[in-house]
UniProtKB/TrEMBL annotation:
It holds the Pfam family Acetyltransf_1. Residues 1-170 form the N-acetyltransferase domain. It comes from Streptomyces filamentosus. PROSITE patterns: GNAT (PS51186). This is N-acetyltransferase. GO terms for molecular function: acyltransferase activity, transferring groups other than amino-acyl groups.
């Protein structure tokens, strides 16, 4: 069966929060000992992103079972993750920050991750999209490159977080040449 995708916004967070937490717990079951990937920490991120009025989330259900999700929000002007990596700043302005893209193990390698990603971004008005990828996962970075992203730098957003590749897509060709 092909999973059904549903879109949710800021006001839907109370209804979808536990679904996101359950998918995360399953997706990161092998990394339960890693403090950065604990469910409690992830819950903080869900609440942080979900509190933004521009929060946008797509959830996949397969035969009634939550299979994965993607969510993010408009990046605050001047606080985009690409700042400090590109000079001059890209024009036009406006960046969607893809915070999480997660698929449960049983649905991995089915194309679901790209469906979630594309469905989320296709409805966004921002000309740029950014995301962070753990630098110890080069295959994930390579996958995002096939979706039009390119690595523009690295950053560690929190003292206990992994080192992430900062990835960006949507730059016009002239801006890419200057970067």
């Amino acid at each position: 069966m092909t999973p059904t995708l549903t879109r949710h916004g800021h006001t839907d967070l109370p209804a979808i929060r536990q679904i996101l937490l359950d998918i995360h717990a399953d997706a990161y079951a092998a990394e339960r000992d890693d403090p950065f990937h604990q469910t409690e920490k992830f819950a903080w991120f869900v609440d942080h992103w979900g509190a933004r009025p521009s929060f946008d989330c797509v959830i996949a259900h397969d035969d009634g079972h939550p299979a994965g999700f993607a969510y993010g929000a408009t990046a605050a002007l001047g606080r985009e993750t690409w700042r400090g990596h590109l000079s001059p700043a890209p024009v036009p302005n406006g960046t969607f920050a893809l915070s999480e893209l997660m698929v449960r193990p049983a649905w991995r390698k089915t194309g679901l991750a790209q469906r979630l990603h594309d469905t989320l971004l296709d409805a966004r008005p921002e000309p740029l999209a950014t995301l962070l990828v753990d630098t110890t996962h080069p295959r994930v970075q390579a996958l995002y490159e096939t979706w039009g992203y390119r690595k523009i730098g690295e950053r560690r957003p929190f003292p206990d977080s992994p080192l992430y590749a900062v990835m960006l897509r949507g730059l016009p060709p002239a801006a890419e040449e200057e970067a």
